[in-house]
Structures are given as structure tokens and as C-alpha cells.
């Protein structure tokens, strides 16, 4: 079981799309942070500030970066979203994810 | 913002009721742990091993302990569930909770 140690976690969740997407922010000693989240089946669009690593721990979905084609992740996989951009998701099964915000 | 510091968090979520209830386990240095979870509107029944403190951070629900009456929490509140017992929930709005497992 992969764990993150010595982190600080906000007690309060981030809730989007009426609870169909939720996440918890975890902050590391060096000040960097990730969000651990759940997405229920549905279609969503997100925007980014920093560049993001979307690490799909478990689930089946399709994602589309701005100007890109639809790509599928089935089970687990990682994709990267440029900073100040948008991306679309078609989530087919309950999806567990870990998002890292990359300060390039 | 309430936070928990110096914790270890499992990367993988706990997923129940087809994703309508999900949680993340956080473990403290002393070995104790809590789960931070989200419940979508719905009716659920849970069982306990250890005695549990259910701390509702945000949400509206009704809960019923074994042999008890329905009680309402609207916004935030805490209730306790005996060890080796069951409890029922009627969740009216997306509910953010923190469950502590009390080793009495």
C-alpha cells in the first residue's frame, strides 16, 4: 500500500460538481502539495493554474487536453496537463486519483 | 482551517456503495488513525468494530444507532457509535466527515 508520510491534511474536503468530484489536500514538509480525490462517473471539465500530473490510482476514464485527442486510461495511468489550460474528462467508473501541482 | 499534521495517508481511497461513500485513512505517529470521508445523499447502514466518533464537518443527515431514535445533524455535529454495533444514516446533503476509532 502506497502511503505519503509526514504530511499535513486539511480536515475539510474540496467538493465539486455536487459531490461527484471530491478531494483532500495534503501538504508536504517542503511546502509542495497534492490532492487525493475521487471522481464518480460523469463528464467534467477542469482548468489548471500550475502544470498538473494526474495520477489515476484506479478507474476507467477518457481525458482530452486542450487541442488534443481523447485518450483512455483503464485501471491506472498518468497524464500531464499544461499550466493555465483546461482538460475534459469522461469518467466511466469510480476513479481514485492523485494530482500533483508542478511548479515549473 | 483545521488540519492534521505529521500524518501518514494511504494513497488509495476506501470506496463503498459504488463511490457514494468514500474515505481516506490517516495514521498518526502514535499509531491511532482516523478516516476523512465524503457521503453523497442516500441511505446507508454501517457496522463498527471499535467505538467510533463520527464528526460531521459539514452536511445534513439523520442517524440512528442500534435501538435508538433518529437524530438529526444539520451543518456540523458529533455522535458516537458503540463498538461492535451498527448504525443507519439518511444523508440529505453531501456530507464531509471525520471518523475516529476509539480503542477503549
From TrEMBL, chains A, B:
**HAMAP family, per the entry:** Nucleos_phosphorylase_PpnP
A Pfam family reported for this protein in Swiss-Prot or TrEMBL: Ppnp
For the keyword Signal, the answer is no
Gene name of the encoded protein: ppnP
Record function comment: Catalyzes the phosphorolysis of diverse nucleosides, yielding D-ribose 1-phosphate and the respective free bases. Can use uridine, adenosine, guanosine, cytidine, thymidine, inosine and xanthosine as substrates. Also catalyzes the reverse reactions.
**Catalyzed chemical reaction(s):** guanosine + phosphate = alpha-D-ribose 1-phosphate + guanine; uridine + phosphate = alpha-D-ribose 1-phosphate + uracil; adenosine + phosphate = alpha-D-ribose 1-phosphate + adenine; a purine D-ribonucleoside + phosphate = a purine nucleobase + alpha-D-ribose 1-phosphate
Look up keyword Nucleotide-binding and say if it applies.
no
Query: GO cellular component terms?
Result: cytosol
Q: Which family does it belong to?
A: Belongs to the nucleoside phosphorylase PpnP family.
Which of UniProt's keywords are assigned here? Glycosyltransferase, Transferase
Which named protein is this?
Answer: Pyrimidine/purine nucleoside phosphorylase
Which CDD domains is this protein grouped with? cupin_PpnP-like
What EC identifiers does the entry list?
A: 2.4.2.1, 2.4.2.2
Alphabetized GO MF terms: guanosine phosphorylase activity; purine-nucleoside phosphorylase activity; thymidine phosphorylase activity; uridine phosphorylase activity
Amino acid at each position: 500500500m502506497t502511503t505519503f508520510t509526514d504530511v499535513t491534511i486539511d480536515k475539510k474536503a474540496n467538493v465539486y460538481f455536487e459531490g461527484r468530484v471530491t478531494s483532500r489536500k495534503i501538504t508536504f514538509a517542503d511546502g509542495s502539495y497534492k490532492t487525493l480525490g475521487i471522481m464518480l462517473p460523469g463528464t467534467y471539465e477542469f482548468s489548471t493554474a500550475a502544470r498538473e500530473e494526474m495520477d489515476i490510482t484506479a478507474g476507467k476514464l477518457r481525458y482530452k487536453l486542450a487541442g488534443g485527442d481523447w485518450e483512455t486510461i483503464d485501471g491506472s495511468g498518468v497524464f500531464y496537463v499544461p499550466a493555465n489550460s483546461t482538460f475534459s474528462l469522461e469518467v466511466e467508473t469510480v476513479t481514485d486519483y492523485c494530482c500533483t501541482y508542478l511548479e515549473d
